[in-house]
Design goal:
Largest sheet: 8 strands, mixed
Radius of gyration: 30 Å
Structural class: alpha+beta
Number of helices: 17
Distance between the termini: 50 Å
Length: 592
RNA sequence: GGCCCGGUAGCUCAGUUGGUUAGAGCGCUAGCCUGUCACGCUAGAGGUCGAGGGUUCGAGCCCCUUCCGGGUCGCCA
C-alpha cells in the first residue's frame, strides 16, 4: 500500500475516489457491527468507517486496533449523510469507507491522552516527548517554527546573504556566559568550548570577504534556565559589511514585516518605533519596554527632596531618585492586601519598600500620610496628573533599583488589570545602549554588549575620560516587552579596539591571548561591519502566544538542564574519562 | 545558593479536626450494540498517598530531612 493523501488534506474533489491514508488511531468507536476510527497524522484527523456486513474479514482485523496503533487504510472517500456531518471537524463532511486495512504497528496504551491542551504534567510529557510531539498543538508549534526559519532563509538569501556554517568546537572566551566545555582527547588538559554565539566567526567572515552572512545555528550557555532560556537555543545570526546602524535595521525591518505576513498573516508597519536606551529606562524602567500600554514612570526627585519625608529625600541625597507611576483608576480596584502584594513585587527587585497614595473624592489614603502636607500632596498630584480613583506608587532608591522595581510593577499592574490587548504586535528598537557598565564585583568597566561593539562617533572623545558616558552603536529589537534580538556595529579600527581593551582593563597580552586571532585578522583590512542575532525560539514562542520556549523546542531540557527523555546528562565509563585525561573530584558518589 | 508553588490509581483531581476497608471522572480490560464523533449500556481490574525518619493508641493529613518538577531572584557580554 502506498499513501496517497494526508488525513486532513483530502478535498471535495477526492470524494468518490480511491485513496490510501496512514496514521495513528486517535479514537476507536466500536458500535458492534460498525466501527469508526478517527485516524490522525500531522495534517489532522479523518474518520474511517469499517462495516462488518460488507467487509467481515476486514472488520475482524480492524476491531483489534487501539489508541495510537499505526494503520494503513485504503478505500473510497465518501460524503457523509447530512445527519452524520460533524461541523467541529475539518474533514467532518466526508469519511473513508475502508476496503483494505493493515495494522502497521501496535501501541501500548499511552501514558497520557494525545490531545490539545493536555492536562498531563510536564514530567510525564517530557519523559515521553515523542508522544507529546504528536499532540496537534506541538505539531502546529514546530510547523510555525519551520515556516519562520524558512522565511528567514528566503528573505536573507534574496537580500544577498550567504548561509555559512561556523564551528561548534571552538575556543573558550572570557566574559559573557559560562561556557560548555568539551575536553580534548588528543591534547591532554585542553578544552574546546561550545559557542555562546558565532560572534567572532561571523566577524572573521566579514574580514574573509563574504560581505553578507547568515546562519540559523545552535548556541550554548551554561547558565540557569528560565521559561525563556534553555542551555542550547537557536539564533538567526547575521552580519553585514560596509554598513551602519540604519542599514542593519532596514534589512531586518523588512525581514520582520515579511515574517509576520508570511507566518502569521499579520501586517506590521515599518519603520518600527525607536527608543534610545536612556528614554526606555526613564520612561519604562526597562531596556526592553512593553510599550503596548502606558503607566510610564515619572521623576519626582525634586518634589521628594523638599517633601520632608526622609526616605524620599535621603534617596535623592545619596545620588538616587524618587520615581512614581500613576495606576489610573486602580485606587478602588486594589485592596490593601493587593497593594502589599505590589510591594512584594518591588522588593523582589531590591526596592526597600513601596510608598503609595490612593486619591479619592474625599481626599487620600497613603502609606506615608503623616509626611504628606497639602503642598507636597498637591505637588505629586500635579506631577502625576492624578485624579480621584488613581493609585500612585513611589519607589525611592538608586536609579537602577528604582527603574527595575517600577519597570516590573508596571508589568504586574498591566497584567492584573488587563491593559494589554491580545493580538497586538508591538515591535520596537532600543538604541544607543551604554557601551560599558560597571562590574560591581570586580570594580572595573565591562562591555555591556561585547568588547567589539563600536562606540557612537559623537561619544568617542569620552572613551578614556568618562567611559560611563559613551553610548554604543548597539540595538535590540523588542517585541511585546521581550528582547527577541540584538546586535551592533563593530569596531573595525585597530587603534580604537586597543583603546577599548585598555578601558575594560585588558592588557595587550591578555587581549592577544584571548582574541588574538581576531585582532590578527583586523590587521589585514577590515571592512566596517555590523550585524544582529535573533532568538528563534523566543520569536516562535511569541508568535504562538506561548510563555515558554519549551513549547517550540522538540526536545527541551528541564530546569536542572536535564533531558527527562534521554536521561542526559549521565555518568560515563571510567575508560572514557581516562581517554580524556579527566579525573573526577568532589562528586558525591551515588549508591551503585 | 535564596524565596514561592506542586507531587494521592495509567491520567486529572477530591480527601472534613489525625480515626473503620483511600474515593470520583477519564482511561484500561471483557461482554452487548449498524451512524458514532466526549458514542451508549453492563461488569471488572487498577494504590509504595514521591522517598526516608519522627510525633501519636492511630498519619494521605502534623514535624524534620530528602528526591523530582514548575515559577522567580541571583546568573544570563
Amino acid at each position: 500500500m502506498k499513501r496517497t493523501h494526508r488525513c486532513a488534506e483530502v478535498t471535495a474533489a477526492d470524494v468518490g475516489h480511491d485513496i490510501t491514508v496512514m496514521g495513528w488511531v486517535q479514537k476507536r468507536r466500536d458500535l458492534g457491527a460498525l466501527l469508526f476510527i478517527a485516524l490522525r497524522d500531522r495534517s489532522g484527523i479523518l474518520q474511517v468507517v469499517v462495516n462488518s456486513e460488507t467487509h467481515a474479514e476486514l472488520h475482524e482485523k480492524a476491531v483489534q486496533v487501539r489508541s495510537e496503533f499505526v494503520v494503513a487504510v485504503r478505500g473510497k472517500l465518501a460524503n457523509r449523510d447530512a445527519s452524520a456531518v460533524n461541523a467541529n471537524m475539518e474533514t467532518g463532511t466526508v469519511e473513508l469507507v475502508a476496503e483494505e486495512f493493515r495494522i502497521l504497528s501496535k501501541s501500548e496504551t499511552p501514558p497520557f491522552h494525545i490531545e490539545d491542551n493536555s492536562s498531563a504534567n510536564d514530567v510525564l510529557r517530557l519523559k515521553h516527548r515523542f508522544l507529546d510531539l504528536r499532540r496537534p498543538d506541538m505539531q502546529r508549534n514546530l510547523m510555525l517554527r519551520h515556516r519562520l526559519a524558512k522565511c528567514a532563509r528566503d528573505h536573507f538569501h534574496d537580500a544577498g546573504f550567504l548561509e555559512i556554517e561556523t564551528p561548534m568546537l571552538t575556543k573558550s572566551t572570557p566574559e559573557g556566559a559560562r561556557d560548555y566545555l568539551v575536553p580534548s582527547r588528543v591534547q591532554p588538559g585542553k578544552f574546546f568550548a561550545l559557542p555562546q554565539s558565532p560572534q567572532l566567526f561571523k566577524q572573521l567572515l566579514m574580514v574573509g570577504g563574504f560581505d553578507r552572512y547568515m546562519q540559523i545555528t545552535k548556541c550554548f550557555r551554561d547558565e540557569d534556565l528560565r521559561a525563556d532560556r534553555q542551555p542550547e537555543f537557536t539564533q538567526i545570526d547575521l552580519e553585514m559589511a560596509f554598513v551602519d546602524v540604519d542599514d542593519v535595521i532596514g534589512v531586518n525591518e523588512t525581514f520582520l514585516r515579511k515574517a509576520f505576513k508570511d507566518v502569521m498573516g499579520v501586517d506590521v508597519p515599518t519603520p518600527f518605533k525607536r527608543l534610545p536606551y536612556d528614554q526606555a529606562m526613564s520612561r519604562y524602567g526597562s531596556d526592553k519596554p512593553d510599550t503596548r500600554f502606558g503607566l510610564e514612570l515619572c521623576d519626582c526627585s525634586d518634589l521628594a527632596v523638599s517633601s520632608g519625608f526622609q526616605v524620599f529625600s535621603g534617596a535623592v541625597d545619596a545620588g538616587g531618585s524618587v520615581r512614581a507611576i500613576n495606576a489610573k483608576g486602580c485606587g478602588p480596584k486594589y485592596s490593601r492586601k493587593e497593594i502589599d502584594a505590589l510591594g512584594d513585587v518591588a522588593k523582589t527587585y531590591k526596592a526597600k519598600g513601596l510608598a503609595w497614595i490612593v486619591i479619592d473624592e474625599a481626599g487620600f489614603k497613603s502609606s506615608f500620610a503623616k509626611f504628606l502636607t497639602e503642598d507636597v500632596l498637591a505637588g505629586f498630584k500635579a506631577r502625576l496628573g492624578a485624579e480621584p480613583g488613581d493609585l500612585l506608587l513611589f519607589v525611592a532608591d538608586k536609579d537602577d533599583v528604582v527603574f527595575d522595581a517600577l519597570g516590573h510593577l508596571r508589568l504586574a499592574i498591566a497584567a492584573k488589570t488587563g491593559l494589554i490587548r491580545p493580538g497586538t504586535w508591538d515591535l520596537l528598537w532600543v538604541t544607543e545602549f551604554p557601551l560599558l557598565e560597571r562590574d560591581g564585583e570586580e570594580d572595573r568597566w565591562v562591555a555591556k554588549h561585547h568588547p567589539f561593539t563600536s562606540p557612537m562617533d559623537e561619544d568617542l572623545a569620552y572613551l578614556e575620560s568618562d567611559p560611563g558616558k559613551v553610548r554604543a552603536k548597539a540595538y535590540d529589537i523588542v517585541l511585546n516587552g521581550v528582547e527577541i534580538g540584538g546586535g551592533s556595529i563593530r569596531i573595525h579600527d585597530q587603534e580604537l579596539q586597543q583603546k577599548m581593551f585598555r578601558t575594560i582593563g585588558f592588557t595587550e597580552e591578555q587581549a592577544q591571548a584571548r582574541f588574538g586571532f581576531l585582532l590578527d585578522a583586523f590587521r589585514y583590512g577590515t571592512p566596517p561591519h555590523g550585524g544582529l542575532a535573533y532568538g528563534l525560539d523566543r520569536l516562535s514562542m511569541l508568535m504562538l502566544g506561548k510563555d515558554s520556549i519549551r513549547d517550540v523546542i522538540a526536545f527541551p531540557k528541564v530546569q536542572t538542564a536535564a533531558c527527562l527523555m534521554t536521561g542526559a546528562p549521565d555518568v560515563v565509563d571510567d575508560k572514557q574519562l581516562d581517554e580524556l585525561h579527566i579525573r573526577l573530584s568532589d562528586v558525591p558518589l551515588e549508591a551503585e
